[in-house]
Here is the input.
Amino acid sequence: MSQVLRRIIAENRAGHHAAIPSVCSAHPAVIEASLRLAKSLSAPIVIEATSNQVNQDGGYTGMRPPDFINFVNGIAQSVGHAPRDILFGGDHLGPQAWRARPAAAAMEKARDLVASYASAGFGKLHLDCSEGCSGEAAQLPDALTAARSADLAAVALRAAPNPDELIFVIGTEVPPPGGARADEDGDIPATTPAAAKATLAAHKAAFEAAGIGAAWAQIGGLVVQPGVEFSPQHVHHLPMQRDPNLLSALQDDPHICLEAHSTDYQHPAAYPRLAALGFAFQKVGPALTFAWREALYALDKMRAQQGGQHGPSLPKVMEELMQAEPKHWQGHYPADADNLASLLHLGLADRIRYYWPHPQAVAAVAALFADLGSLSLDDSAIVHHFTQSELASARQSSQSLPYALALGRVQSALRPYFFSSAPLLQPI
Here is the structure.
């Protein structure tokens, strides 16, 4: 699959609007919906895990890198999607999960992390050492970030079963302390070409200094900010007419494309525009679990309207869970906010996604689908909550109607990322 990514990069750099979505989620239904959609379109897809989700200690999912690959491959086999057509990516691989420790200790954990990802078969590795560890500045300068990233790249090359197949992504879109700042027009300022060039130069020098200069050809992506972002209550949409000219930073590196993070909730036209600006790698995550939650809550309303509910509503179960275990949203939403309930359920940051694996949530979702299975859902009721296309697709699915509707809502959120029809995007 690394050949597919290289073809996409080459197509994009040749001026074609080629891009591939990277789905960053550990939710089984989101992964299933994504793989089903990619299969139906005969399109390749990247499935990514973050260093907090999945790491050598289990992460918050309880999965180590080999577990995640087996988990996704199991879903792929169940939907008839060939595992060989999935590229696995690791996101923000570095010392972040251990940055409360001194740098030496955090980097030792980061080396173990990257080795575990590379040896497990992850082929697209985002190396991110931009955040400071204990006693360091919150955001580190390019030179130190690059030196640590090169250190991790060398570890990955030694650990990978096929080191030549690795594709590295460098750089970060993480804003400085205080968060992203909108400009005078209300837009998120894009990275400047000068800053992008400085990041590239620092990493190239660091790779040479680490004795892995030849691996520069394996750098496939540079993370920069095109001007897209979202907060719990607001989406910063891509300024469609603005061109930050970031491709000029790559003029000496035709093997590298741009990678965009936080592209969730953008208008459909933003994705081909991002591709035109050089962003061949487009990351999405929270918008997909947001769509799943949206679908489940709609189904819960339908269950109540038809008198099929047994036990508490799904939103009530989730509210009680989030209030009882606030660690996943504290620090993101103020506990005394007047609209806290709305933020917990409907916030675009989608902190609720951390609660779906909880046994109580799993049981509540299972009860929802069981209750709906005993009801005859009328199309006239469904279209109050789902689109006609979602309904039509669900009616044709071999899945139960309620479950197919929920998968369809996730696919509606992901479908705009599959805008390219270039033949070179076909999986091999």
About this structure: The chain has 14 helices and ten strands. Residues 286-305 form the longest helix (20 residues). Residues 2-284 form a domain with the TIM Barrel fold (CATH 3.20.20.70). The radius of gyration is 21 Å.
